[in-house]
Design brief:
The protein is α+β, with helices and mostly antiparallel strands and 144 residues long. The protein has a domain at 2-87 and 128-141. 13% of the residues lie in helices and 28% in strands. It has helices at 2-8, 11-14, 27-34; strands spanning 21-25, 47-48, 55-56, 59-63, 79-83, 87-91, 96-100, 116-120, 123-127, 140-141. The chain has a 6-stranded mixed β-sheet with strand order 2-3-4-1-5-10, with helices on one face. A two-stranded antiparallel ribbon has the order 6-9.
């Protein structure tokens, strides 16, 4: 369904000047795509590894190691084609740093005689176009 994913992207998400259309998947899926011939009888792959970044159908193809690599169960989302100019990544700045003057043991809840610093931050992401998250819109997910 690689060609189906590409065909489902509307022109406004693949042909305007600031569009950043790209493929992402786990490296296992990338290697599976490398086994697909570019046309019947071809010995070259649909994935072009010439250059710094692999491409598929002329679009950059990046690795996302956190994505699912399984094809065994239907409904798994393991190949994504999307316009990444529609995505926003937000980090809460500054991160929070807390001084803890009395560190306690986890097992006994008694003081350990130590002090500590705890730090945490929040990071999130989403797409700016809600309709671009499914189906024939900017972000199209499909099991290959």
């Amino acid at each position: 369904m690689i060609y189906g994913l590409h065909q489902n992207i509307p022109p406004r998400f693949r042909s305007y000047d600031t569009a950043r259309l790209a493929w992402i998947s786990n490296v296992t899926i990338q290697d599976a795509c490398r086994q697909i011939p570019s046309f019947t009888g071809s010995v070259s792959s649909i994935v072009n590894d010439n250059g710094d970044v692999p491409t598929m159908l002329g679009l950059p193809y990046y690795e996302a190691s956190a994505m699912d690599a399984s094809n065994a169960v239907s409904g798994h989302k393991n190949l994504c084609l999307g316009d990444f100019s529609q995505m926003i990544l937000v980090e809460r700045v500054p991160a929070v740093m807390v001084y803890e003057p009395l560190v306690v043991a986890q097992a006994s809840a008694l003081p350990t005689g130590q002090v500590g610093w705890y730090s945490y931050a929040r990071v999130g992401s989403d797409i700016t176009t809600p309709a671009a998250a499914y189906g024939s819109n900017a972000f199209v997910f499909h099991t290959t």
